[in-house]
Design goal:
Layout (H helix, E strand, L loop, with lengths): L1 E6 L1 H13 L3 H12 L5 E6 L8 H14 L22 H6 L9 H10 L3 E4 L9 E9 L5 E8 L8 E7 L8 E4 L6 E8 L5 E7 L7 E7 L10 E2 L16 E2 L5 E9 L1 E9 L7 E2 L15 E10 L2 E8 L3 E7 L10 E6 L6 E4 L5 E5 L12 E6 L7 E7 L9 E8 L3 E8 L3 E8 L4
Antiparallel strand pairs: 1-2, 3-26, 4-5, 5-6, 6-7, 8-9, 9-10, 10-11, 12-13, 13-14, 14-15, 16-17, 17-18, 18-19, 20-21, 21-22, 22-23, 24-25, 25-26
Helix pairs in contact: 1-2, 1-3, 2-3
Length: 440
């Protein structure tokens, strides 16, 4: 007996992921793009009693034909084509050499340059605090010129007492740390501050015992961080984490919010989340395509984003293969090119970047090309060609790699006078730089 079944978009997404695991990568890519660009349901004829997994190829084939022949209404045909792969297999030493570290200022010399130009380097709080460890700081400049930084803090990462804390810098000193979010008696993670086009400040954070069980929460402030709304779940029913995963969202030229996101369900996948209504609802992109035969390990997470021209969005990615990887979109994030190697080192730790008004990109990273390598030094790199090549401008921290020191998980934002950077300092402090443009 033949019956007509209506599969939901979520069911089709799961089916397409299964196709990838089965090796149907090309089919998956066409079909997945078609799915994301249509609001219709897919009607699949099949024998009653058959399991859905027996019909995955048929589902994918029909979607694929729809994308190619126009049966499915898709806005952008075909995937974004990425830049040619620039690098073969590089050693960690070769990756570091590509950044021209010999030209970089030492941390001490750069601090002197920054403070001499009217900037500052400070800790967001002192030794007196209500938590033993802290990590994953984020920061934003308010409309009245203050800097807010937030982080997760508690006895140790993953422990149920870990919550979200914040402090405010008024140009001369920081306020005492204040606990801002603790919605459940379980671990809280990775706060992300974001200021929208109306100067409303949004705080996103994760809640859950581990990453696969994360839910994303959000709260906002309309008075420069003095008061905050009650926390709400960002995407009801979500498990695994939607919205910003570590780094800030960006506002695209078409006024949408674009949030860098990732999941860690066995393998690691990166994507972006879009909002066209000020964060009330979110639409998930495709996962950035990744050839796992070429890039060994779990995959990629924690993108950092910029838009080089209208519709041209780029992502640098933390990875498990000793390199910063990249994916690009030329159709407003509908499709993304195959993830490729930038030639830059990555120690499987967080990174973040901004784009200055003059077009330069500033990237904060640990330039160490070994998976789970040392989280020192922490450096500031610059690119003048849209990320095709980079050089280290200066070190923010340059303790030797044979120490147990950790300087990691940076966040960088533009400010009225230049840029501000925060990062984990030895897991018990948050250090912040206020850098005037003339020092860059």
């Amino acid at each position: 007996m033949i019956v007509s079944l209506h599969y939901t978009q979520r069911e089709i997404e799961v089916a397409m992921r299964t196709l990838v695991r089965s090796g149907f990568e090309l089919l998956h890519r066409f079909a997945y793009n078609a799915i994301l660009e249509t609001d219709c349901e897919y009607t699949i004829l099949r024998n009653k009693g058959n399991k859905m997994y027996k019909n995955l190829f048929v589902v994918g084939l029909l979607c694929c034909c729809g994308a190619v022949l126009g049966c499915v209404s898709a806005k952008g045909a075909g995937n974004t084509v990425c830049a040619a792969e620039k690098t073969a297999v590089l050693t960690p030493e070769a990756r570091l050499a590509s950044l021209k570290p010999e030209e970089a200022l030492s941390a001490a010399a750069f601090e002197e340059k920054v403070t001499g130009a009217g900037g500052s380097v400070s800790f967001a709080f002192g030794s007196e605090r209500s938590f033993a460890q802290c990590h994953a700081s984020t920061l934003v400049e308010t409309a009245d010129g203050k800097i807010i930084t937030a982080w997760f803090g508690g006895t140790a990462e993953k422990n149920p007492d870990v919550g979200i804390w914040y402090s405010v810098f008024d140009g001369s000193e920081w306020t005492a740390p204040v606990a801002i979010a603790k919605v459940e008696e379980t671990a809280h993670w990775n706060p992300v501050l974001f200021k929208d086009e109306k100067d409303v400040i949004h705080l996103f954070f994760k809640v859950g015992v581990d990453v696969p069980r994360w839910s994303t929460w959000c709260m906002s402030s309309e008075d420069n961080g003095k008061t905050w709304s009650e926390p709400l779940v960002l995407v009801p029913g979500d498990v695994g984490g939607r919205g910003p995963v570590k780094n800030k969202a960006i506002i695209l030229s078409d006024d949408r919010w674009c949030a860098p996101a990732s999941t860690e369900e066995g393998k690691w996948d990166s994507f972006v989340d879009f909002s066209s209504d000020g964060g009330k609802s979110w639409q998930r992109s495709m996962d950035f395509p990744l050839d796992r035969r070429k890039f060994k390990g779990k995959g990629t997470i924690q993108p950092t984003l910029w838009e080089s021209a209208p519709g041209h969005i780029h992502a640098l990615l933390r990875s498990t293969c000793g390199a910063i990887l990249r994916s690009d979109s030329t159709d407003n994030g509908v499709t993304w090119c195959d993830t490729y190697d930038t030639g830059m080192p990555n120690n499987n730790s967080g990174l973040d970047l901004i784009q200055l008004e003059d077009g330069r990109l500033l990237l904060v990273l640990n330039p160490v090309g070994v998976n789970w390598g040392a989280r020192t030094p922490l450096s500031l790199a610059v690119s003048s060609d849209n990320g095709d090549s980079w050089s280290i401008l200066a070190h923010l921290e340059d303790a030797p790699q044979d120490t147990e020191f950790e300087f990691s998980y940076p966040a960088i934002v533009k400010t009225a006078k230049g840029v501000a950077i925060s990062y984990t300092y030895k897991r018990d402090r948050v250090r912040c730089w206020q850098i005037p443009l003339e020092a860059l």
